[in-house]
Amino acid sequence: MNNRFNDGSAGDANYGTIGIGYTSYRQPDPHIEGFIRNALGDARSVLNVGAGAGSYEPVDRNVVAVEPSASMRAQRPAHLPVAIDGVAQSLPFADASFDASMATFTVHQWPDLKAGLAEMRRVTRGAVLILTCDPARLDCSWLATYAPEMIAVEARRYPPISAIVEGLGGQTIVQPVEISLNCTDGFSEAYYGRPERLLEPGARRANSAWSFVEAGVEERFVDRLSRDLKDGAWDAQYGSLRTQPLFDGSLRLIIGQP
């Protein structure tokens, strides 16, 4: 799907709507950030594609950010560079312009994954980093029981890891990224041990999959989870997650070298 919404969103989600209050729930998580910093190595110039509000942009490097959504560009904090209005499949840079490039939680929004990855590879001298979710592992979360329709949407939208590996070419490493119990980046699995947070409308809105489910699905999810938290049914089955320090879910960091 190749929609350009009123705020310039280039993918299938309207961030003019779901981007409202996004940064209240989606803050870079230090544990995840460590994986990205290690993968960037000593790269000094970094391109961030689908940069959004700037999560995981290293502040100690020379970063150029590209983001098509006006509402997301407007939420970037003052200490980060102003993002360029652009899309992954048509990057306005010369070949080998950057030491490294990165794309976090964005490839599932791209209308042309192959073209976007090829463009990142073209403009990058070194490592290309893709932080994404493996659709084959989305059913590891308790959300697959409580919100199967939302998980099905996510599974359809996220490209297979093999497609990203193929698109990057060269030498590629796929790293599992475990999620910490108090993860500050509120994608759905971030609340694996804090289910109450997903009763907050803002927390669900900050996960674009909820904007694609049919009418009534979200309400049924809230009703069921509220009931099961109140009567203890959720804790009876999943309560151990409340103290589990790390969760190996679907999050993956793909590192491609030329």
Automatic annotation (TrEMBL):
The keyword Methyltransferase applies. GO terms for biological process: methylation. One of its GO terms (molecular function) is S-adenosylmethionine-dependent methyltransferase activity. The keyword Methyltransferase applies. Residues 47-125 form the Methyltransferase type domain. Keywords: Methyltransferase, Transferase. This is Methyltransferase domain-containing protein. Pfam families: Methyltransf_11.
